[in-house]
Amino acid sequence: MTPIDLLLSRKSHNKLTSPAPDNDQLEILFKAALRAPDHALLKPARYRVFEGDSLARLGDYFVTAALNKEPELPQEKQDKLRGKPLRAPMVIVASAVLKEHSKVPEVEQILSVGAGVQNMLMAAHFQGIGAMWRTGGMAYNEKLMELLEFEAGEMIIGFIYLGTEEGNKRAAKPLEIEEFVTRFGE
Predict the structure, then answer these.
(1) Strand duo 154-165 + 16-17: pairing
(2) Which of 16, 31, 62, 135 has the highest count of CB atoms within 10 angstroms of its CB?
(3) Any signal peptide, and if so, which residues (predicted)?
């Protein structure tokens, strides 16, 4: 497959199983992520890797954070939150540490980390690793950010679930670009 074929065949994988990326594969993911555009080289990206027993700890953090916001959260919802990180053998919490800069607004820093996550997803796909970028309410929960020991000005960009795609691989859906593109000119 050519690089363009690989690029056009990327899709999200919501059913992931072991094995997780190994250290060499993970290093490639991070190197790809850190190649994203970064105006003024502010290096806003941070990545926290959860695998093995730490996935259960992340699930506990989810529950603690949710209970902080909604103390009467039903047990069924707590159990569901606790199990979310266990949907893959590895979860990376991608975040941006926003810095005040005269030429680089916060939105550019957020987009830089988002571009880094996309590079990570592509590097995963190129290596045959299944990946899914998720957000949801936990991505905006301040208590979770406290539990993850975030710096001042740091925010979650997403939870990147990584592993081996479970079941039959389906082809990516065809793309219809006409509804998204307006051309100007001749």
Answers:
(1) antiparallel
(2) 62
(3) none
pLDDT tens track of the chain, all 186 residues?
A: 888 988 888 889 888 999 999 999 999 999 999 999 999 989 999 999 999 999 999 999 999 999 999 999 999 999 999 999 999 999 999 999 999 999 999 999 999 999 999 999 999 999 999 999 999 999 999 999 999 999 999 999 999 999 999 876 666 678 888 889 988 987
13 assigned ligand-binding residue: no
**Domains annotated on the chain, with CATH:** 3-179 (3.40.109.10)
Q: pTM of the prediction?
A: 0.93
User: Please, what sign has the CA dihedral across residues 106, 38, 115, 146?
Assistant: negative
**For residue 29, which phi and psi values (nearest 5 degrees)?**
-60, -45
Residue 10 counted as an annotated binding residue = yes
Query: Is 103 annotated to bind ligand?
Result: no
Tokens coding 143:
């208590």
Among 120, 129, 133, 134, which Cα is nearest to 164's?
129
| Residue 167, helix vs strand vs coil | coil
2 a known binding residue? no
